[in-house]
């Protein structure tokens, strides 16, 4: 697209330049719909827990290459009109036309295009890109645009609240309106006086934490969009607020309350009947720290907490102690996260119009108070050519189309409140981003946690944002700069130069990232030159959002900036049913790494059976890291996630939605290190989640399906197990333990050759029901052990079971247990199983975990294979094919999502909520969760 002089486009002034649009993806004379094979499908979505039908629409029309999952989610979430009525949309054509034609009509009316022919080409190009899953707008666009509803296009909102009751009550109202519309909001409460300050009447102020209770109750009552999930919101408090310590502890204290109530028998699961008695659970909390505070932490100095009205220091605290309290609270309940205020405002394009004080709930949008941002994300894997090169020139063209459409949307958009609408129209904040980065890195043979992977990600991000701002500067010459630009021109240009300088500092390692950085350099230079003349159309261009639901719409393997979740996937089939498949990016990655077809087939077979690549036949150990995922045998280290965020942050206008997952064994000191390094590396925001830190987190109860062997009826051989009784005199040990405050004793008896043969568990008062049940349970386990059932079988079945009592233990090797049985069988594993078997189960002593950290990550004892016998590989493939197929059917009762599938492979349940719509276990997407079953998200996008 280029600029030209408009000669007759409706709404354009005579002599005003308009866009001349050139065809990139489409062919003249051929409509995009005519290039695609369409098919009719039936969409029937059920809740697998009770069999009830959540959604049903038959005969919907979609392209044949769209997956069943994408079809289901789009038909159920985005088609408008009452189900069963003639007005109901039933084709993807209708959905795309409804949105695209609205955009093109608004663009024409507001003078974006030089001629009507340019508008038509723009319409066809957008249609082709959406049809072929090259990009997607955020969900509100699909919900609202082109309908009789308000034309809300934004998913991200920031509110403001002042230190008076009218403003506080208005905060409750505005938040409720946004939640009702299906979106989320964030705000900073630091203007509200602390509980240590006086009111004008002479009384003491309530403080922001007290007002958080009312807002939390409101959010819990007004379910988001009328659905069953909770509202998404972010609450921020500045580190120099006198109530910051109380704010830090709010959710940690409530987590302790949950433990006590569950111990007392109350239903405290996430959707439990009694969870409503717990406060502050409907928001993400973040502390806004500045450089002054972080330097005080670094030097071990003191830091002043300041009165809200006068700014005077009313209390001095130990900075390092306060920082430790943040890490301690995050260790206990995952909150608060940190937002790095000085870094955020150093990259602010509009400081003369106000500081950036808050973010949206997922932390990717950060700009002025009372503002909004609409999002769109590109599918990066669509730009990877067969030769392994990223098509940077095509990517630039795609970014031009998308950012132009996003800006047009502000011309006709509606907003939940007038202040938000006013600010957004004046500053026109956009949030272009991408999905499938993790899949792209794997497909090109890059490890996510590697210099090469970070260089490629940085170059792509720089090219995307540089192109966006260049197009924004061109649009400013056509339809004008954003209204707030004149006041902020110097600051905006300064931030553009900072982006360009960061681009120059990218250390390229391969042809792909070198080519993209070179093109990005050109884009930044052109953008700055044009912007110096025209200004810019948009105060903000890019963010990295979770891309949960729209990621499924584009059939992406990975969301946002995330690595691949796992190497095995849960795939829905046409006509119902599902199967396990190996991530289709794996063969592509192996090809890029130089493996031959026979080797690739053998490795894929191995992954299908084991869920990981460790010891896969023919796979060189130095390539293991390419296949590291978010969960699994080789999960990416927490600092690997932080370094990836740091690599791309200098090229994002806003911030990055991402939670750094940490293992259950992570320490408070390690969380401190993550938070401190996030500041050092220039991040704008950072949040962590430590596995199993939340008591009220429901886990999947899926169990492994057992294969049923076919038996010939005419020739049956019966094998009976033989009980091996313990001798009269046998070695034994007795262990006292405490789990969640409940005390008990474990007696374990062994055979003389050291094999476990019996257990007795003392828990509860003599004669009580609990004591009787534990006696019977101990007897059944003991008899099973004596009949030859391996201890590791019991460990795999009973570890990670979740029920009360649960919580902290007095065992240095097992600090937290999800139940008494979880503790007992992990303890038995440590005492009686060899290291190799425990390693497969993921059970280690504290000393072993320490040594693993000290010795580095990802080392393998597998020998490097200098050469591979292809005939031997063929034989291996054929023999394995006789035993198992790489695409193995999954029993419906075994797994219902990729997250549950990985639980089966790992032999343990990972923390993730269950979808409140369809009951499927969700998986992480940025700082939110997304459901593969129905596309629901726990966030705002």
From TrEMBL:
Instruction: Please tell me which top-level EC class this enzyme sits in.
Output: oxidoreductase
Into which family does the record put it? Belongs to the ribonucleoside diphosphate reductase class-2 family.
Annotated NCBIfam families: NrdJ_Z (TIGR02504), PRK06556.1 (NF005122)
Identify the residues that the record assigns to the TSCPD domain, covering every copy.
727-831
Q: Which residues form the Ribonucleotide reductase class II vitamin B12-dependent N-terminal domain?
A: 43-133
Which ranges carry the Ribonucleotide reductase large subunit C-terminal domain? Answer: 154-689
Q: Which cofactor does it need?
A: adenosylcob(III)alamin
Name the chemical reaction catalysed here: a 2'-deoxyribonucleoside 5'-diphosphate + [thioredoxin]-disulfide + H2O = a ribonucleoside 5'-diphosphate + [thioredoxin]-dithiol
Kindly provide the name given to this protein in its UniProt entry: Vitamin B12-dependent ribonucleotide reductase
Please describe what this protein does. Catalyzes the reduction of ribonucleotides to deoxyribonucleotides. May function to provide a pool of deoxyribonucleotide precursors for DNA repair during oxygen limitation and/or for immediate growth after restoration of oxygen.
A GO BP entry is:
DNA biosynthetic process
Q: Which residues fall in a compositionally biased region of kind Basic and acidic residues?
A: 871-894
Q: Name one Pfam family in it.
A: Ribonuc_red_2_N
UniProt-recorded Gene Ontology molecular function terms: cobalamin binding; cobalt ion binding; nucleotide binding; ribonucleoside-diphosphate reductase activity, thioredoxin disulfide as acceptor
Q: EC number(s) per UniProt?
A: 1.17.4.1
Q: Residues annotated as region Disordered?
A: 854-895
Q: Does the keyword Transmembrane apply?
A: no
Keyword entries, A-Z = Cobalamin, Cobalt, Disulfide bond, DNA synthesis, Nucleotide-binding, Oxidoreductase
